[in-house]
Specification:
With 90 residues, the chain is α+β, with helices and mostly antiparallel strands. The protein has a single domain, classed as Beta-lactamase, CATH 3.40.710. Helix content is 39%, strand content 17%. The chain is built from 3 helices and 3 strands, in the order ααβββα. Strands 1-2-3 form a 3-stranded antiparallel β-sheet. Helix 1 crosses helix 2. The chain is globular and about 35 Å long. The mean pLDDT is 94. Belongs to the glutaminase family. InterPro entries: Beta-lactam/transpept-like, Glutaminase. It is an enzyme of class 3 (hydrolase).
Length: 90
């Protein structure tokens, strides 16, 4: 699993993570950062991809959306995961 081939630079990875954290969850980015504490990017189809830098990436999907257009169950699941593994960038 996983590739050891680097396709972006460490600087680009930091920039992408910063963009995901600050605006990847539409108007819900602040709440997502507060509750979950890891960079994420959602789509209006109900998918979310989230990154714990230097550790792992996780994808979730559930179609029911909140008022910001983010998956309700996906956000809840990511919050449970973040709490369970004790990982946050804050």
């Amino acid at each position: 699993m996983g590739s050891k081939n680097q396709i972006i630079t460490p600087r680009q990875a930091r920039q992408i993570n910063a963009l995901m954290l600050t605006c990847g969850m539409y108007d819900g980015a602040g709440e997502f950062a507060f509750r979950i504490g890891i960079p994420g990017k959602s789509g209006v189809g109900g998918g979310i991809i989230a990154v714990v830098p230097d550790a792992f990436t996780v994808a979730v999907w559930s179609p029911e959306l909140d008022k910001s257009g983010n998956s309700l169950a996906g956000c809840a699941g990511l919050e449970l995961l973040a709490n369970k593994v004790g990982r946050s960038i804050f």
